[in-house]
Amino acid sequence: MQDKIHYDFLIIGSGIMGLAMARFLNAENPKARILVIDKEKELGEHSSGRNSGVLHAGFYYTANSLKARFTVEGSRLLKEYCQKKNIPFNACGKLVVAMDDKELEMLHELERRGKRNGSNVTLISAEEAKEYEPSVFTHKKALYSPDTASLDPVNVLRTLKDDLVKAGVKFVFEAKYLTHKNNVVVTSAGDFEARKIINCAGLYADKVAQDFGFGKKYTMIPFKGLYLKYKKNKTDVRMNVYPVPNLKNPFLGVHFTKTVDGTIKIGPTAIPAFWRENYAFNYRFQPKELLEIAFEESRLFFSNAFGFRDLAFEEIRKYHRDYFIGLSTRMVRSVDPQGFGEFTRPGMRAQLLDKTRRELVQDFVIEGDKNSIHVLNAISPAFTCAFPFAEFVGREYVCAS
Description:
Blueprint: E1 6-12, H1 16-28, E2 34-37, E3 54-55, H2 66-85, E4 89-90, E5 94-97, H3 101-117, E6 122-125, H4 126-132, E7 141-145, E8 149-151, H5 153-166, E9 170-172, E10 177-181, E11 184-187, E12 190-199, H6 205-211, E13 218-225, E14 228-230, E15 240-243, E16 255-258, E17 264-267, E18 271-272, H7 287-303, H8 308-317, H9 321-329, E19 340-343, E20 347-354, E21 359-360, E22 365-368, E23 372-376, H10 382-398
Parallel strand pairs: 1-2, 1-12, 2-9, 5-15, 12-23
Antiparallel strand pairs: 3-8, 4-8, 5-7, 6-7, 10-11, 11-12, 13-18, 13-20, 14-17, 14-19, 16-17, 20-21, 22-23
């Protein structure tokens, strides 16, 4: 049924960015008529709900990036929100460990980045690292981040939605974006008119943006993330333990995550997927997406742009359970390789590819005009950054035009 209300703001997508945008806009103008639409039946069906739950500390990102600008503040604001709403979080901290002298140099670079970004990070000796994680292995030094934490992302999403509903924000689920006619959004649940349309559609943000004439040089290359749960106990690892990442791509490597309830898991993979919701072999199979994405991935594979071929081969190896586990046990020696159980629910990284330069986009992207704003490439640490990033988008793009 067609909705007759003319909204001030219509937000496409009820993930963390959509909810954070609604929260900011409602706080700025409580009388504004705000509508959030989503193609699913409920919250958290995709990237935000399948998020690792790690609140990042902001030391991976180059100083001039939006990620660097918002991660430290975003982590603080989310923790404050959790405390206010009695949402549990695990302030377990993180160690980043090195395997050799080359990786040790990268630890120094991460510390420099962290200090520039206002992150509370310290290089400590291998002996000091063992005080935090007794069986950790690192080469000479480790990077210690006491502010890294974990939470349940779905708990946060549901609480935010409850707050927004109480504040008068409207939600319509099972409303798949189809097209638009000027300021009218056409969906599977009817047509909705708004003064300004804000695209926070995650895996489909590129498609929605292109329908409005934006984001034409980009396409989405989805990467599947799998975690393996440690079933033996919750005590063999005390905190998050990460390897030194390859800073030329946006993936952080297989690492240990301590969840909000203390569960240990390793992951994620970054396996190139063949359609946007390729969580399983035949889940929501999209032939057109398969052709589009396979075409782009084949070009990247044969040119080995940004080392894509090497990345693909390495990620495929992670399907081999022993290899996957082995990447983690070299960092923490107390873990029992036989103690792992099943893979958790897979996630999908909505990673933007710049087709003109054939490289993965490392930072958030915003495009738009006076009628529509499009949040593209809201990848990790977008969950951590959500509150200040939404305020930035709101002030600089939504309310300014």
